[in-house]
Amino acid sequence: MNKKSLLNKTTGYNAIIKLFKDVSKYGFENGDLSYQFFFRTLSPLSEMNGTVTSENYGASGFKASNELYHEMKKTLANTVYN
Predict the structure, then answer these.
(1) CA-CA distance, 44 to 36, in Å (whole number)?
(2) I need a labelling partner for 22 at 20 to 30 A (CA). Which of 12, 34, 36, 54 fits?
(3) Is the CB of residue 56 less than 8 Å from the CB of residue 3?
(4) Please, is 53 exposed, middle or buried when counting C-beta atoms within 10 Å of its C-beta (0-12, 13-18, 19+)?
């Protein structure tokens, strides 16, 4: 576990929940909410490994969560947001 990662904190949690809402809607519209769907759809987020820190997105708060969420959206642009 990366102790500097925002994914372990409220900021990361909030960003992930916002992203989950979008991805779930996409899966529902396509009739697939399986484990494989989520795994395949969210796999590109691994490109962000090591970069989800307060140095890159701010320490906490709505602004930091929103910036992280938008960066995650951008990372998934070719799978969910096309």
Answers:
(1) 14
(2) 54
(3) no
(4) middle
Query: pLDDT per residue over 57-70, tens digit each?
Result: 877 788 999 999 99
Task: Identify the H or E element spanning 3.
Answer: none
Q: Which pLDDT belongs to residue 82?
A: 59
Scan for tokens 């989520």, then name that residue: 38
Q: Which tokens sit at 52?
A: 């989800």
SS3 track for 19-66:
HHHHHHHHHHHCCCCCHHHHHHHHHHHHHHCCCCEHHHHCCCCHHHHH
- List the one residue out of 2, 30, 21, 3 whose CA is nearest residue 69: 21
Q: How far is residue 64's CA from residue 7's CA, in Å, rounded to a whole number?
A: 12
